[in-house]
Structure formats: structure tokens, C-alpha cells
Write a structure and sequence with these properties.
Elements: H1 2-11, H2 14-27, H3 29-33, H4 41-50, H5 54-60, H6 70-99, E1 114-120, H7 124-137, E2 141-145, E3 148-153, H8 155-181, E4 183-190, E5 193-196, E6 204-207, E7 220-230, E8 240-250, E9 258-263, E10 268-270, E11 273-289, E12 295-300, E13 304-305, E14 312-318, E15 324-332, E16 354-362, E17 382-390, E18 395-397, E19 404-420, H9 424-443, E20 447-455, E21 461-469, H10 476-485
Antiparallel strand pairs: 1-21, 2-3, 3-20, 4-6, 4-19, 5-7, 7-8, 8-9, 10-11, 11-12, 11-19, 13-14, 14-15, 15-16, 16-17, 18-19, 20-21
């Protein structure tokens, strides 16, 4: 039992709580370094494929599932227990202290850091009663005794300290609750295409531990148009200025569609979830025909931006040809005439769009059973047959009688992050409360002051005023001087 009590005292100490808080921050770092399965499973597979030696070791250490790992959960749980065991007893002690009176005045006030003394012929009881009233008006809690007065203020300092730590507890609970019952997903939607809230529709989906796919609210939306504005000219040429996604939203299958404009910092809220606009790009459209002129592929393919001028890379996979055909290349919204660093765009708006494509023939690897990224072409079993530059409306006749590729135009696409986090309101409130608590604990000084009236042989009284600071905050001497003036102390020369 003695060992258990010692362990509990160590776990609930402020020092251990700070260490655990530091360890929690440290443990979060791998989650930002390595791709996580919950958000980027394809990137994890690519990492394991590119690192056959270190990848499995990192996987066994949960580097790709940091926030779901046992060691991260252990630190999180220990921190919660530590804060609970540390804060709750202190809160009870502080409550008792608030209900108690200031301590009795010491016998020898001269030993205190700040001390003033003078003589007076006034009645001692009158001095103490009038001073008590004056000090109360200055925000001091007072206690009167026989020939002495005790006062104290600054209780809000400890209140703020407890509020800060209690807010951390609420914040941990809110984050844990939101992470358990909520979810987060991302989806790329092209213009004139739609999204229905189904797991299969998400590009990435990270559900909470106790969240079921059947709990997804049945809303949907269609991206009608995406508008983007960029600065033209000046030192910030090409800098983004405005993004807007015009969507038609159906809150449920039976409701009528309603138009909504989703912008940065102006998300869509429906059915208890929030839809954020976080990115955009271009999706060039192609029509691919085989040697007989039959259309084997006709669609827009999402190309991902590679720089601020939206030089975008992407692939098109056409499995319905023999041998199979793959297109790999760049979409340039405004083509640059400088090709020293390869094909690049000089401006993010589609002022002069072109595509640079390389065609590959062979086995796309789609039948291997291994998951593939839709943005990457596996060329190990393929052969490049040509390279071509195309403007909208131009057609490329492929070598080896492989057919033709027509660049018909482009659409824009937008990336949306869809989240449900029922704990974020509590987390926000806890964060605000923690800031208030921290401010109180840092800005409010804790002081004690005493007044003692001692009778002398000549029928006069010796008046003593002294003070003590329970913090290292400056200004104690000035504050005691102000209190002394309230008992008619003589002006200091």
C-alpha cells in the first residue's frame, strides 16, 4: 500500500503532469513526419514499397498509426489521470480556503519584508474598525481581532490556476470524445459532378473508434461551378485572392436542393457536419480512341498542382486496349516559353492552357490485386511510345497504331474536407477558459497585509502596518504604503 500511495503521489504531482504534457507533444511529431493510414493509406503503401527495410520496422512501431497506437493512448490516459489527481484535491483545498478567514496577525510585524510604524493618539478600536472598512473598499478580505487587523487578496490567482488546469482536463475529454464519435474525410469533386455522403465516395476517410459507417448523415451536393481569382501584376503576381465553390446541397434525399456558396472560412454546415473548401486544381478532358476509331476513354482526369503557378501532373489509365495504354503528363494553365526546367506554368489562371503528355504501352498492373494511386502510373512493365504537346481541340495520333488522343478542354475541381466533431464546441470553450485562467494566474498578485495597534506608556498607540507577498510580483511596498495612508500614516519624506 505504501508503494501504491507513493506511485500515486508521483503520478499526480505537477512535475509529472508537465513531463507527460511534453511527452504528448513529442509523441505527436511522428504523425506529421510519416503518412498515416487513417488519412493517406496509399501514401503509406508507397512508403512501405519504397522502403522495404525500414518500412516494416516503422510499421511495427505504429509510426503510420501514431494517434491510434497503444503508446500514444497510454501517454494520453496517464496525462488525464495525472491532471485529475492533481487538480481536484487542489480545487477542494482552494474552496476551503475561500471560506476561511485570513490568518491571525503575527506578533512581530518588523520581521516581514515591508513594514511601517508610527504613533497615534487615536482610539485603537476606532482605528481598526475604520481601517477594516477602508481596506474592504480596496478589495481586501479582512479579519478583525483584539488590537489587530488581518487582510488578504489575490484569491483569483489560484482560481485562475485551477481554471487553467480544469480547462486542460475538459479539453482532453472533448478531443477524446470528438475523436471517438466523429470522423474526418476528404474528397475531390469536379465541376458538374457530385458527392453523396457514403464511405465509398471519400478519397480518404478516418472514422472515430466508435463511429459506424451507418451513422453518416445522408446529405449530398453537386459542384456546379468553381471560381478562382489571382492577383495580376505587382510583387504578388499570381497570389490567390478569392476561391468560391457554388454547390447545390440536399440535406437529405427527400429535401429540395438549395444553392450554397462555399468559400475559405465560410464552410457548409448541414446535418451536424461541416464541409470546408481546402484546395482546387484542374482536370483536363481527353477523348481516347483505338486504332479502329472506337472511343475507349472519354472523361476528365484530376491533375494535382506541383507549384504556386499550378503546374499540374497527372495520369490517365486506359485498360480497354491491347496492349494497355497509359498517359502521363503535365497540365499548364498558362504555358511558359522557358523550358530550361521542363514544361511549367507561369500563371495559375487558365490564360493559355496546354498539356504535355507521354504515352506508355504495356501492363498497367491493375490486375495484380495491389492497390494503386490514381495519380501515379506504374511503368515497370510498360514502354514509352511518344511525347506530345497539345492545346485544347488538338489531336495526337499515337505511334504503333495505338490510336489517338484528343485534348478536348478542362474542368476545375475542388478539394473538400468533411468533418463531424461533436467535441469541438467544448474544446473551444475549454481553450478560451484556459487562456482566461492563465491570464488570472499570471497577472493577479497574492498579498497579505496586517495592522497592529499597541498601547504605550504615554497613553498613545504605536501603529504598525506590514505586508507579505505570496508571489514574486513587484509592487508590494507601494501597495502597503497605500494601505498605510488609509490609517492616516504620516507622509514619507
Amino acid at each position: 500500500m505504501a508503494t501504491m500511495r507513493w506511485l500515486w503521489r508521483q503520478l499526480t504531482s505537477m512535475r509529472v503532469a508537465l513531463i507527460l504534457l511534453f511527452l504528448l507533444a513529442l509523441a505527436s511529431i511522428p504523425g506529421s513526419i510519416f503518412p498515416q493510414r487513417g488519412t493517406s493509406p496509399l501514401r503509406v503503401n508507397e512508403f512501405l514499397k519504397d522502403n522495404p527495410t525500414t518500412g516494416p520496422i516503422l510499421d511495427r512501431l505504429y509510426m503510420f498509426d501514431v494517434f491510434a497506437s497503444p503508446w500514444f493512448a497510454s501517454i494520453y490516459l496517464l496525462l488525464f489521470i495525472s491532471l485529475t489527481g492533481c487538480v481536484l484535491p487542489r480545487a477542494l483545498d482552494h474552496y476551503k480556503e475561500l471560506r476561511s478567514e485570513p490568518p491571525v496577525a503575527p506578533r512581530n510585524l518588523r520581521r516581514l519584508p515591508v513594514h511601517q510604524q508610527w504613533q497615534s493618539n487615536s482610539d485603537s478600536s476606532q482605528i481598526i474598525s475604520e481601517t477594516a472598512v477602508a481596506w474592504k473598499k480596496r478589495g481586501w478580505r479582512v479579519r478583525q481581532g483584539d488590537g489587530w487587523l488581518s487582510a488578504e487578496k489575490g484569491y483569483a490567482r489560484e482560481t485562475g490556476n485551477l481554471l487553467f488546469h480544469l480547462s486542460l482536463l475538459v479539453l482532453l475529454l472533448a478531443v477524446g470524445y470528438g475523436g471517438a464519435v466523429g470522423y474526418r474525410g476528404t474528397v475531390i469533386v469536379r465541376e458538374d459532378a457530385g458527392f453523396a455522403n457514403n464511405v465509398t465516395q471519400y478519397d480518404t476517410f478516418a472514422p472515430g473508434r466508435i463511429f459506424g459507417a451507418d451513422q453518416l448523415p445522408p446529405f449530398s451536393f453537386e459542384l456546379q461551378e468553381f471560381e478562382s481569382e489571382f492577383q495580376r501584376g505587382g510583387q504578388q503576381n499570381g497570389a490567390p485572392r478569392a476561391f468560391r465553390a457554388d454547390v447545390l446541397v440536399k440535406d437529405d434525399p427527400k429535401s429540395e436542393p438549395r444553392p450554397v456558396a462555399i468559400e475559405v472560412n465560410y464552410p457548409l454546415r448541414t446535418s451536424g457536419i461541416t464541409v470546408y473548401l481546402v484546395g482546387h486544381g484542374y482536370a483536363p478532358e481527353f477523348t481516347v480512341r483505338d486504332a479502329d476509331g472506337k472511343v475507349v476513354w472519354e472523361d476528365a482526369s484530376v491533375f494535382l498542382p506541383q507549384d504556386t503557378a499550378f503546374t499540374s501532373s497527372g495520369v490517365v489509365k486506359i485498360p480497354d486496349t491491347v496492349p494497355q495504354l497509359g498517359l502521363q503528363g503535365f497540365f499548364l494553365p498558362t504555358v511558359s516559353e522557358d523550358f530550361s526546367n521542363g514544361p511549367v506554368s507561369k500563371f495559375p489562371a487558365p490564360d493559355d492552357p496546354e498539356v504535355y503528355l507521354s504515352a506508355w504501352q504495356g501492363d498497367l498492373g491493375l490486375d495484380s490485386g495491389m492497390p494503386q494511386s490514381v495519380y501515379r502510373l506504374e511503368t515497370e512493365n510498360m514502354k514509352r511510345i511518344g511525347i506530345e504537346e497539345l492545346a485544347p481541340g488538338e489531336t495526337w495520333t499515337l505511334p504503333n497504331s495505338a490510336g489517338t488522343v484528343e485534348f478536348t478542354g478542362y474542368r476545375q475541381w475542388a478539394t473538400f474536407v468533411i468533418t463531424k466533431d461533436p467535441g469541438k464546441g467544448w474544446a473551444l470553450g475549454a481553450a478560451i477558459a484556459s487562456i482566461i485562467g492563465l491570464s488570472l494566474s499570471l497577472l493577479i498578485p497574492r498579498r497579505r497585509a496586517w495592522l497592529r495597534v499597541t498601547a504605550t506608556d504615554d497613553r498613545g498607540n504605536v501603529i504598525e502596518v506590514a505586508g507579505l507577498s505570496k508571489t514574486e510580483a513587484p509592487g508590494l511596498a507601494d501597495e502597503i504604503s497605500q494601505l498605510a495612508k488609509l490609517v492616516n500614516a504620516p507622509e514619507e519624506k
